[in-house]
Structure formats: structure tokens, C-alpha cells
Amino acid sequence: MAVPPRFSHAGVARLPWQGVGERRGPSPRLDKPAVPHSLVGRGAWRLAAFTAAALVVSGSSASAAEQVPPPQGSYAVVVSAKTYADGAWRPVVDALRTKYAASIITWQSGVREAQGDLAAAMPNYTCFVAPPQECGRDFVVAVHRMTRRLDADPYTDTLWGILTGYTADDALRIARQREPLTLRKVLSGTSGAPFGAFDEGAVFDERKAGGMRLKSADGKVQDKGCPPDSTRSIVDYFNKEKPDCFITSGHATQHDWQIGYSFKGGQLRHKDGQVFGLDTQGQRYDILSPNPKVHLPSGNCLIGEVSGPDCMVTSLIHSAGVLQMFGYTVSTWYGKGGWGIQEYYLGQPGRFTLSEAFFANTQALLHEIETRHPAAAKVDFEQYDLEKNRRLMAELSAKHGISGRDELGLLWDRDTVAFYGDPAWQARPAGRKLAWDPSLAVEGNRTTFTLAANEGGTWPGSPIVALLPQRVANVRMVKGEDLKAVVTENFILVPMKGRFQAGDKTEIVFEADQPASPSREKVARQG
Length: 527
Known about the structure:
globular, alpha/beta
């Protein structure tokens, strides 16, 4: 079905696939939003751990191998008492505790019970270890809401992920993974994948049967074409070429991804934890691709919902080498919750790990709600089953007094995109030369955040986000207050506007105190 017009910030109605500079095409249906133009070109980076009284950190892109693990004491594992007592799942928690000197927080009947202990610990990273039976859509929604209510501000207070798997051994394999991943090769089932973030790869066009572009290691991009039913070609690329990034969009459910969007094509499905291609003739091709990779289902409906032990999330982890992924747990029609992560991650290659891109996009979305729709900021939707009730959006709008499509879409996306994997594990594209670079200098209690332009261009329509090297408290703005920057205890967000020229520099200076260190003994649950 076609989606209604999207309203720009100026209030002018426009169709979401007809923005300036966007790809034009047929009307997107429910689970195929076009990439919003305002999301393109954002950037941020992960800053190294703060270890000295004076620190200067450049935001230039870096490879995963150059990054450092989080400092000890800044990681918490949240797990149900039942799972913690399970002989198969307890080693997963123990592996994370050993790897990160993590605190352990348990809950009995609902994950929200962990809020008090989590607020006391205030970790940089939080991993929710949960078997598939525990981490469905309601769990994801609860984690979103809890992790932004650990203090008084409306933003997320910890980088989080859900660690699950088809079996406990899948989760244990991820928990034990230490080697970071630098993305070099992409396999994409959507033409919305940017080749520029990768050394090589293949892009299959979901809108054109037989459409396929190939980027070789020498950087050349060619229209190669493929059979009209590309199922086997996609599986062969998985198995033979060992991509480390898999991107999808188009129609999907908890149990499949439909390869064609504008044409009848095959599918990726799963059974008993095995992902396989099923072509239009009913021929099955198993995916045998164990090399570590990340999955970006940027425009897929429902594929991020763990609906039971055997679903796409658990099967991709079990048999396709996926160590991290995000995904919608609902039908997607607005798109910012998914495409926005991809734009942070691939639009500024090398500056984000996948979990950081997920975090940054969530803060940008929350900021847009706070600044454009402040009255809606405290609204929590009670239902998300759009598949069962096609009038749900109208009912939610009427109940909560929502008058615009953007307001409704932002609230719909805010709590429904899940992140799976160890949030501190580092997977990022290789660094590239970019139009602007951020840097951060810390001396005493004063921090200077600088944006330096390497060439002319236009600032993105959505904010720049950067993680701070240590938590801060009692922030006092010294310079740049007119830029309306947001500084929380763990990140800075700057809504830059207009054009920049090569050599331009923008500075924001603030002073802040160091918060009191939490007592780990008060929050540890060591069994």
C-alpha cells in the first residue's frame, strides 16, 4: 500500500520518495520507506577511554583494530534470575563478566525491575542476556523506555544490546568474540546500499529483476546483471565471497525476507536455525557463511522481532555468521529508526561501531521529538500490532492527540527497533576521507568540541552526535550556546545547519564536573 505524504519541516507536503536528491521510483509500500534525504551525511565517532588530565581526540575515521575495549567497571549484564540459573545460559553471563569485569544485575518477573540497580551502576554499556523466549517485542520496548529513564534527562543513558541466539552456544560464541571487525565487503539486497563505504561487494536491486552491480577490489563498479530470480546468486555470494556486511530492505516478516520488492522473486527463510534461499521454483539453497558479519535490515518490517526460538534473528546468528544486527520489531512505514542507523554507520564510514550508530540515531530521534513535538515526548504507545489492526495508527493518533505524520512516525519508531549482540564489540567500516572532521579536547573540567571542514559542503539536516570520553555532570556552556547543542552525561549533540566551506571551524566549549563513581558492590549480583 502507498504511504501518505510526508510533511517537511517547513510544513510543505511532499512524498517521502520525492525529496531533493532522493532516488525516485514507484510508491513505497508499508515496509519499504524511502531513505529520508535529511538523514544523509551525518557523523559521529567513538572516543577512546579518558585516561589523563588533558586529552585531545580526533574524530578522523579509524579502523576497528585501532580501537580499545571499554574500561573495566563500565559494563553491566542484565539477566533474569531464571536465565542466570540455567546451566546453558550462565556461561554466557560469565564470559561477559570475565571479558569486561562486568556487574551482574538480575530481575525476577520483568526487565523493568532492573531499573534501580542499573541507574545506580550507570554503565557505559549494558548487555541484556536473554533466551528467545524472553526477548520479544514487549521486551525491546521495555528496554528502550527503561534505558532513557535512568536519570532525569530524556535521552538514553547507556549503549545497550540484547544477546540471544538459537541456542545458548550461539550467544556464548558472541560473548567470547574479542577480535574487532573492519568491514570491507558488502552484500546488499537493496539498491539503497552505499558502495563508497566498502572496498568491494555486490548490490542486488530489489526493484529490478536481474539488476546487480558489482564493485571489485580495484574500486571499479560495473552493472553485471544476474538471473531474474537472484536467489541462488545471493546465496552463492554469501557462501563464496564471505561478505562482512549484509544489507536488506523491502518486504519481510519474522520468518523471511522477500528478495524482490517490485517483482516476484525468491526468499530467504529459516528452519531449525538454518537460513536458506528458496527460489520461485521451490529449490532450496542453504547459506553456509560462518565468517563474522553484521546485518543491516534498514527498511524491513518485523525482521527484528524475536517471535520465538526459531526466527530470522536467531537463525541469522546461528547459521549465517551474524554477530550484530538491528531490526524493526513492527511494520515500518516511517523509516527513520532503521535508515537513520545506516546513514550514521555508512554515511560517515569508520566513525561508528554499529551499536554506536544505533545509539546516535536513537538520540537524534529523541531530540527531534523533544524539539519539534515536546508535548508528545511522554507519550508511550500501548499497542504495535498494525498487522492485526489496520486502523491502529488512526486510533493512536486520536487517543494521544497526535496531529501530524512526523510526530506519529517518530513515536512509532522510537521504541521498536532492536539491537542484538554485545554492544561493546566493535564492528565498523574502514575509514575514508570525509568532508569534515570532529575533534575533542579535554583539559581539567573544560571540554572543547570542534568541527573542521576539509572541503565545501552542506551540514546534514539531522544532528551530529559524539560520545564523550567520560561521564560528566553539572554542564555549564561557555561557548556556542547559540548552536543549541545538547550535552548530556555521555554525549554531545549539535544540530548544524546550512553550508560550510573548506577551512571553516565551529567550536563548542563547556565545563562540567565528574559525577560520583557508582558503588559496584551495591549493584553486582554475582550469584
